[in-house]
């Protein structure tokens, strides 16, 4: 369980960092908790989501990334499958050692255009890795 | 990212409700994943060959298309073990397969 002080500090830092890009900020940080791709939410701006565990199949934005990598269906089919489901952006912080992802919910938020927002997150990669470096799913 | 992007589930506990037809013959399914599966058959095929599969799991019947990634001969069973990468041309068939895989996952982890 994340300490309240740590949670508050991360939330404050994130809101400062992203204030010009998206408002309100709705973000989850998930770590893979086993070899079956079940992910535990170890940080969430919505505190009720903390410590929940969800399978890879129930994270649409991550599924989209994995399907694009896997080549089991073509790009057009993927676009059709996820039509109307673009209110979430998944950013993979680490996949090779321990699988760690950030999920931004764009639902009801004012934000940069999707592509611009994605570019900004990529530029912030090192900052985000550092910010979440001490957060574990223990 | 590497291949084997999705979890792999062994099918021992499904054997009673599972029927696999592979190249007009029956086959034993060893494990399944969203993007590939492993099965055992007495028939000999070659790498990269495209194959059609039919899987009946309980009341669900699904036709799959895949490509043989590699194979090995298992001396004890005198059968060939094939790893088959799956491809889906239609979203309907993919969504049916996805539902099966998701159901197996949920049955084991309640998630």
Can you walk me through this structure?
The complex is a heterodimer of chains A (138) and B (111). With 138 residues, chain A is an alpha+beta fold. Chain A is built from five helices and seven strands; from the N terminus they run H-E-E-E-E-H-H-E-E-E-H-H. Chain A has one domain: Beta-Lactamase (2-Layer Sandwich). Chain A is 36% helix and 24% strand. Chain A is globular and about 45 Å long. The termini of chain A are close together. The mean pLDDT of chain A is 88. With 111 residues, chain B is an alpha+beta fold. Chain B has a single domain (9-109), classed as Thrombin, subunit H, CATH 2.40.10. Chain B is globular, with a radius of gyration of 14 Å. The two termini of chain B are 24 Å apart. The model of chain B has no long low-confidence stretch (mean pLDDT 86). The A-B interface holds A 35-38, 53-58, 66, 69-73, 77, 80-81, 95-96 and B 1, 3, 5-7, 34-35, 85-88, 90-91, 94-95, 98, 101-102, 105-106, 108-109, 111.
């Amino acid at each position: 369980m994340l300490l309240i002080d740590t949670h508050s500090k991360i939330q404050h830092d994130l809101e400062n960092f992203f204030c010009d890009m998206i408002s309100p900020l709705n973000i989850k940080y998930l770590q893979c908790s086993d070899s079956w791709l079940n992910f535990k939410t170890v940080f969430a701006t919505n505190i009720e989501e903390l410590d929940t565990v969800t399978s890879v199949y129930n994270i649409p934005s991550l599924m989209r990334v994995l399907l694009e990598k896997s080549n089991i269906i073509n790009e057009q089919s993927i676009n059709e499958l996820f039509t109307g489901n673009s209110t979430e952006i998944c950013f993979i912080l680490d996949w090779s050692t321990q699988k760690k992802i950030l999920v931004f919910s764009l639902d009801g938020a004012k934000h940069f255009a999707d592509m611009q927002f994605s570019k900004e997150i990529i530029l912030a990669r090192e900052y985000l890795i550092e910010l979440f470096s001490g957060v574990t799913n223990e | 990212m590497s291949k084997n992007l999705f979890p792999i589930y062994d099918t021992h506990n499904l054997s009673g409700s599972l029927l696999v037809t592979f190249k007009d013959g029956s086959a034993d399914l060893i494990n399944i994943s969203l993007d590939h599966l492993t099965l055992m058959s007495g028939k000999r095929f070659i790498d990269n060959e495209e194959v059609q599969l039919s899987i009946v799991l309980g009341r669900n019947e699904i036709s799959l298309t895949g490509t043989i990634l590699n194979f090995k001969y298992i001396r004890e069973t005198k059968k060939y073990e094939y790893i088959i990468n799956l491809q889906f041309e239609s979203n309907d068939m993919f969504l049916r397969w996805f539902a099966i895989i998701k159901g197996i996952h949920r049955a084991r982890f309640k998630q």
